[in-house]
Amino acid sequence: MNNRQDGKNTGQDKVYAEPLAHVDAFKFDAQVADVFENMINRSVPGYPLILDMIGVLTERFAQSDSNCYDLGCSLGASTLKIRQHMPADSHLIAVDNSAAMIDRCRANIERDHSQASTEVLQQSIQDTQIDNASLVVMNFTLQFIADQERPALLKRIADGMINGGALILSEKLVFEDEQEQRFQTDLHHDFKRYQGYSDLEVAQKRASLENVLVPNSIEQHIDRLSIAGFSEVRMIVRCLNFASFLAIR
Ligand SMILES: C[S@@+](CC[C@H](N)C(=O)[O-])C[C@H]1O[C@@H](n2cnc3c(N)ncnc32)[C@H](O)[C@@H]1O
Fold first, then answer.
1. What is the average per-residue pLDDT within 6-35?
2. In a domain? residue 14
3. Which partner for 233 in 21, 30, 220, 225 could form a disulfide, CB atoms 3.0-4.6 Å apart?
4. Distance between CA atoms of 44 and 149, rounded to whole angstroms?
5. Cα–Cα dist 58/134, whole Å
6. For the domain that residue 240 is a member of, what is the CATH number?
7. 92 falls within a domain
8. 145 within domain boundaries
9. Residues 110-147: pLDDT tens digits?
């Protein structure tokens, strides 16, 4: 396993390890926030590479005298990548609506050596004003927003970006072809078992995310980003049923 076990927020994820009489809808509460780093590393194949690509793309796209946004920042893993690679005279705004995540994110940023100008806001990203943005990151967040609200949110992001700015959007994928959907899902569950999750943990987590994490297809993402006003849209990373898209304004 590639998780540190020596710092804060790095406990082993046991949230679904015991049989539950009733599996509640998944929430980003304190119990999840305490183990989130371990949970996302063991659940999302390619997550460390995606974080590195956020660093690479921040160096390429974040501009002086502009704003960078991390929407749905959780503990700040992507926030720290942006912070460490953006120009010194740009400003970073990290947003999450979970108090448990925001508290831990603020603490993680305080421990970071970078001096980059950063604010961490507890609010819904539907209420976040996007302005003068050269870089917007949504790393596995859009999938938790109601499907019907996604087009308007993406348009508002595009409208708040400067020419040449970039949106990095990472999401779980769904496949229209049933056989492909089954194959990708099975392989993802194999990945989770390889990471040490039991069949019970995989099944209970899956039940908790039902209707909470609603994935779209590759085609839906590409079409919707183009309609929102991005001039170039590419899938730049894909691992099983998880992908990152780069959309340039
Ligand atoms: C999968 S996590 C994101 C992981 C993080 N970006 C990273 O790279 O480690 C999704 C986050 O989005 C937040 N979130 C979900 N819906 C939100 C909303 N409407 N407004 C703000 N944050 C939201 C959750 O609280 C959660 O912390």
1. 86
2. no
3. 225
4. 24
5. 9
6. 3.40.50.150
7. yes
8. yes
9. 999 888 999 999 999 999 999 999 999 999 999 999 99
pLDDT classification of 8: cutoffs 50, 70, 90: low
pLDDT of 200-216, one tens digit each?
999 999 999 999 999 99
Which residues have C-beta atoms less than 6 Å from ligand 1? 28, 40, 72-74, 77-78, 95-98, 101, 124-126, 139-141, 144-145
Range of the domain at 148: 47-173+216-244
Rounded to the nearest angstrom, the distance between the alpha carbon of 124 and the centre of ligand 1 is 9
Q: Model pTM greater than 0.90?
A: yes
Residue 98 CA: nearest ligand 1 atom is: 25
- Residue minimizing CA distance to atom 16 of ligand 1: 144
Closest ligand 1 atom number to CA of residue 77: 9
Q: In this structure, is residue 27 part of a structural domain?
A: no
Cβ count near 231 (within 10 Å): 12
Query: How many independent structural domains does the chain possess?
Result: 1
CA of 102 to the centre of ligand 1 (A): 10
DSSP character string of 22-56:
S-PPP---HHHHHHHHHHHHHHSTTHHHHHHHHHH
